[in-house]
Each structure stands twice: as C-alpha cells, then as structure tokens.
Amino acid sequence: DKLLVDFLSFLADYVPTFPDELVDYYAAAAGFQCSDVGVKRLLSVAAQKFVAEIASDAMQYCKMRQGVGGSSSGAKQQRKMVLSHDDLVSALKEYGVEMRRPEYFADTSSAG
Q1: Is residue 73 very low, low, confident or very high in pLDDT (cuts 50, 70, 90)?
Q2: Domain encompassing residue 50
Q3: Closest Cα to residue 44, out of 78, 21, 70, 10?
Q4: What's the pTM?
Q5: Is residue 31 assigned to a domain?
Q6: Which of 27, 65, 89, 90 falls 20 to 30 Å from 58 in CA-CA distance?
C-alpha cells in the first residue's frame, strides 16, 4: 500500500512523454473524467509503455523480414532498418488492434 502511494507521489512530479493535455483529450473522448494529476500521469506512463512495446515488436518483425540474424564471422555489417506498414500491422495484431492500409497510399492501384 505504501509502495503505491510512493509511486503515485512520484508521478505527480514526473514529466511524461505524452503531455497531460493529450491525456486529457483522449480520456475525455473515451468518457473518462479525473482531476487527479497522478492518475493522469499513470495513464500517460501506461500509454508510453504500450507504444514502446508495439515499436519494439514492430522492430522485431522488421528484423525477421529483412533477415537480420546473429553476427557472422568477420566484421559486423550495419544494415539500415526500415519499418514498413506490414511490420506495424503485425505488431499491432498481437495486441488486438486491427489496422488496414488506407486506400490513398501511393502504391495502391486505386491511387490516381
């Protein structure tokens, strides 16, 4: 119980990656109202963790797609990692988020 109180008091002074205004906007859009700064910061930290996990998983899909394996004998070769839409879709699917490619992408047949 004391650990939770200490953590929430830490969050009151914490400067989150996602600003409080952004959290307020999306919380209000979801129908959540709360004036406690600690709770808002907790939501911000949870959202930051969610985004970081998705980005990490998408990078793993990118590595698999590009065939980046362990280091081979000899000098390490630096390869540029390029995150694709498909990598992001695969990572989001693990978390139950469905994302489709918009029809206005330039590489689709419907794009003029």
Answers
A1: very low
A2: 2-68+78-94
A3: 21
A4: 0.72
A5: yes
A6: 27
